[in-house]
Amino acid sequence: MKVLFILSVVAALVGLAAAIEFDLPAAPEAINSRRCLSQWLPRNTHVKVTAKTLPGFPGQKINMEIHDDSPHLNQYGVRKQMDEVTFRFDTQAHANVIVCFQNVLEPGYPTDGRALTVDLKMESGAMAEDFHRLQQEEKLKPMEIELRRLAMTLDDIQDELQYLKQREGTLRDASENMNGRVKTFSFFSIAVLIGVAVYQVFYLRHFFQQKKLI
Predict the structure, then answer these.
(1) pTM of this prediction exceeds 0.70
(2) pLDDT tens figures, 56-108
(3) Assign residue 123 a region: left if phi > 0, alpha if psi is -120 to 50, beta otherwise?
(4) What is the SS3 assignment for the chain?
């Protein structure tokens, strides 16, 4: 029982969940004013993003887009004129998952500072799984569901540690490569300085011999 409690604490600490509520001012679509929020996530992480807008003044519509900042710029979801929406997806790369919102002021409405309140919640890993549905489909007991949750959380921990290990190896190789270049440049600099010194000695010797000073 004590081990289960410790694992539950680990799961609570490791499971990633972020919730935020903010006001998004309206602006004409041509201005392309957006507000983005991001969270770094490893590859193959299950993510659940839930967003909704609270009632406000008319003449406003919220556009939403989800993508990452990897070289491939993977797209995970787009919704025009969002009211309330939920996206579920698996990340395709180790990257920041970016959620962007744009409050478009419809033509004919004044620019009077009106805004809409956006409620955003992002969950990943075991926190994003629908365990209630899983329990009903597989007819699992509460203890079995908790063990399944802990197993998924430990898998997330293992995947993240593996990524950090790979990242450390990449940075170590880059550091060793840089050290090798610095060492080569140092030897080259020393060789150039020695060459210049030898050239100066022979030049001065030749100069003094022409002047018959030595």
Answers:
(1) no
(2) 888 899 999 999 999 999 999 999 988 899 999 999 998 899 999 999 998 88
(3) beta
(4) CHHHHHHHHHHHHHCEEEEEEEEEECECHHHCCCEEEEEEECCCCEEEEEEEECCCCCCEEEEEEEEECCCCCCEEEEEEEECEEEEEEECCCCEEEEEEEEEEECCCCCCCCCEEEEEEEEEEHHHHCCHHHHHHHHCCCHHHHHHHHHHHHHHHHHHHHHHHHHHHHHHHHHHHHHHHHHHHHHHHHHHHHHHHHHHHHHHHHHHHHHCCCC
